[in-house]
Amino acid sequence: MSESSWKEFWERGESYLRLAERGLSRPEKFNAEALYNIASMAIEGLFMGRFIAAGGLPRNHTLTDLVEFEREQAEMPAELSEGLLKMDGFQSLCSVELYSRRDMSREDLAGFVRLARATREYLAAKLDLNPTPAG
Q: Residue 133: which region, alpha, beta or left (left: phi > 0; alpha: psi -120 to 50)?
């Protein structure tokens, strides 16, 4: 895929991340499920940008699938991967038979947005997107 393809996913992920960050302070506009899904879409977009740039794709797009595929490519910080796997446990919408949702607190939601930010930082370093200090 072209360089613009991975950048489109990356930019979409960053856009969802900004929306999730704004949504934290507006519970009247963003209920828990919406904010969870926006943070999840941010994480998915960022991972997909990284995977497309590297020339590979995971089997599926659950947070667990994204983490497992990334672990096949590189060593991931344990705190980040464990946090994403825990986050994935809050909703299971992909199977009618195994459908589940757990209640989420505002603290949980803030944690999901922190995980999305940490995902962005981790993957930006993998893509060499972090600016280097002038010196």
A: beta
Could you tell me the mean pLDDT of each successive run of 10 residues in the chain, 135 residues long?
Answer: 81 97 94 94 97 93 94 96 93 60 85 97 90 50
pTM of the model: 0.87
Question: Which residue ranges form the domains of the chain, and what is each CATH number?
Answer: 3-126 (1.20.120.330)
Retrieve residue 93's tokens: 């919408």
Q: Show the DSSP H helices in the chain as ranges.
A: 3-24, 32-54, 63-73, 78-88, 106-126
3 state DSSP class of 116: helix
For 46, the token pair is: 């960022």
